[in-house]
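Researcher: Next sequence.
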Amino acid sequence: MAIGSSVLHEKLKEFFGFDSFKADQERIIRHLTDGRNAFVLMPTGGGKSLCYQLPALVMEGTAIVISPLIALMKNQVDAIRGFVAGNDGIAHFLNSSLNKAQITEVRNDLLSGATKLLYVAPESLTKPENVALLKEIKISFYAVDEAHCISEWGHDFRPEYRRIRAIIEEISIAPVIALTATATPKVQSDIIKNLGIADAEIFKSSFNRPNLYYEIRDKSDPKRDIIKYIRQNPGKSGIIYCLSRKKVEELAELLNINGIKAAPYHAGLDAKTRAENQDKFLTEEIDVIVATIAFGMGIDKPDVRFVIHYDIPKSIEGYYQETGRAGRDGKEGQCITFYSHKDIQKLEKFMQGKPIAEQEIGKQLLLETVAYAESNSCRRQLLLNYFGEDYTEENCGACDNCLHPKKQFDGQEEMCMIIELIESLPEHFKAEHLANILAGESNSIIKSYKHDKLEMFGAGKDRSPHFWNAVIHQGTVLHLLHKDIESYGLLSVTEEGLQFLASPSQLMLTEDREFVDGEDDDDDTGIAAVRGSGSGADPQLLAMLKDLRKDVARKKGLQPWVIFSDPSLEDMAIMYPVTIDELKNCQGVGEGKARKFGKEFISLIEKYVAENDIMRPDDFVMKSIVNKSVNKVFIIQSIDRKLPMEDIADAKGMDMEELLDEIEAIVYSGTKLDLDYCIDQAIDEDTVEDIYDYFRNEAESDSLEDAMEELGPDYDETEVRLVRIKFLCEVAN
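Model: Next structure:
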């Protein structure tokens, strides 16, 4: 049905209040109303929704909008009803959140012809009763929103999306418009093929969002950094993405405790709570919504001023779409992402157990994310290039790399040294081990392999192990080296690496990839600056605390870290605690540790504060969450009763790793537990002794990763964790 340009402009003004279309909107709408298929690739904030909403209102019949975001359906239905006053039946949604009475209302409005737009979840579309209902009505067209969900190479693959074409053919054939904000050429091809719209015209808008600022920060103390940032931007709306539901809940609670109005939003909440939290965000009763990365955020809010990723996303597409929720009105949008290697390892671990093909795709997408996070190039250029678009400006002026270029060096010689070392060894080793060899840093494991006798031992001793670690990591990003996830990250050289060794060329690497804090540490936010360079810790006090720790450790015959870790001392040198309760607010200091070792430390700090006339902060960095773990009491009582670990885990629906996480949290908060009954049953005496001796005499920290490397592959990670808990209970607490 051909509809004239004047009619479209008239309806645009009547329904939406706009005088003109944006970019390709009019071309797309005319193409669809002419009865033809379309593929629309348009960034978040570009006006995709209008491309199917306006045609639906002017065409004969009902448009079926297939969307995975239940929350967004309600949002858009409310918006359409607002445009067309007095006719609530004009738009409906059909999904699992509706009761019987609501479903009857939807059915009646559809059959009477009142409904012009029906939003359907892909799972609802495939239900036989819904297919039967849709066969009874005239369908104007099908709009497949978030179409990237069709592709396994997309960032949010949904198997139900691959059944859409078959269902369309069962209901009735009508034009199809596929819309997405993120799609690489590979994903684009998948969408068109799977929806059976090979004849679709492709409408592709620029991916450049010039108003967005992109930044990657080291994840040294993200909670403190987030609270500091939000306090410096009062009243601004923002979204924070986390990897897990548990972290969402914790962070939302932490923000509220610190006077920031926030609410959680994830798939584990009931529909009513999700809707309430979304409405509070839209109506600005709260400033911040904290959400899981995995759960699509259906928040259509134009004035989101910041999007923070507490955890790195699994793909560039996910990152682009989530950051794209900032500044949709064309004004300020700050996109800050916290990055650490541990997050990458977690995401890699999540992939284990999935089909091999899915793992390969996941690893490839993750590698792209790592390359983006660690790159020194313009972030805007990297993002646009990923989506097949060139950005020719040398400096975008709105990303951390362009505003604060990092120092680079030609690392071809260093990379060749690493490749030569790996190739010279008969066995494979982890990055830390190789870095120590090159830096000439000996330890028990290096001695046990006689690697301190190698010709290359100390070949790069003018640089630190940290430097060599960074070079090795960049070698994996550049595909010169390969890290085997399944065997604790052992490294090997790729074909590309061997070619590089045979014919080296310029290789620009980052000399120091730590992010410099460009803000004044002496602010009035009550939040200390991020650790790293310029951590905000009082250097003189920190040195005194380290000396005291050394003395206490020597007297007690313990490793210094068992007394207090470096981050704990740094917190003391920032917050100047002078009571046991204040000391417990420092990172890694539980009740038991504070009472066992704290007295001398707070005495020293109190004296130092008085002698140097120090103004102590009123707000201790940030108020911490009281441990409200519902499992805590049950676990403590079960261990007291000497119940098997498997039974405790089963009773709470946990796996063993989750149970150990809970037990470690209990122990680190200062509670002593006696796990000897299960350790004696599960681990032989010599193994317990070896692991215990390592933590007592050799370990420089309580790091599990370091322990696994030092102890070697013969030791099981669960065994090491159990003995570490025993050691902490008996010695540290």
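Model: The radius of gyration is 29 Å. The longest strand covers residues 212-218.
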